[in-house]
Structure formats: structure tokens, C-alpha cells
């Protein structure tokens, strides 16, 4: 991600509500919707599986602190031009 939003939320709400609120703020700030959200492993109960919330992929990243959500848009891989 080239730009992102680091969101803090230690409320008792469930994960979907937290991600939705953070995504609303991202859209307001950047004018476009995020498609990725990285969270601390404890958020997904340490199983490391990806979850999707309202079009935003929620994935584990150990370097993200507890109660923090790092949202943004994933960069699309560049396609290499083949030599002719």
C-alpha cells in the first residue's frame, strides 16, 4: 500500500462494525474505498485466515498493534512486458 489509514478502536463492537467504521473514515479522507485491512493476529483468533467485511479483505499482520486497523488499497502487481 502506498497510502493508508491507521485506525484505533478498542471498543466492544464486533470486527465487522469496527472495519466498517474505519472504512467510512478512509473513504471520507481519501475519496475512495479501501480494499485491504491488516490487523493484529489476535483479532482473527490467531488462525491467520483472511476474512472479508463489506468488500474489505481483513488479513493478519503481526507488526500491527492490538486494537489497530491499517486500511488501504493494495497495489496491483505490474505485468511484465515480454520481449519479442
Plain-language structure description:
By secondary structure, the protein is α+β, with helices and mostly antiparallel strands. It has one domain (4-72). It contains one helix and five strands, in the order E-H-E-E-E-E. The chain has one helix at residues 15-30, and strands at residues 4-8, 36-39, 51-53, 56-60, 68-72. It has a five-stranded mixed sheet with strand order 1-5-2-4-3. The model has no long low-confidence stretch (mean pLDDT 89).
How many domains, as an integer?
1
Treating each run of at least 4 consecutive H or I residues as one helix, how many helices? 1
Approximate strand percentage = 25-35%
Query: Ranges with pLDDT <50 over ≥5 residues?
Result: none
**Oligomeric state of the chains present here:** single chain
Based on DSSP secondary structure assignment, what is the total number of beta strands? 5
What is the CA-CA span between the terminal residues? 32 Å
* Net shape: globular
Major sheet: arrangement of strands:
1-5-2-4-3
Order of helices and strands: EHEEEE
- Averaged pLDDT: 89
What is the share of helical residues?
A: 10-25%
Radius of gyration: 14 Å
The largest β sheet comes out as: 5 strands, mixed
Structural class: alpha+beta
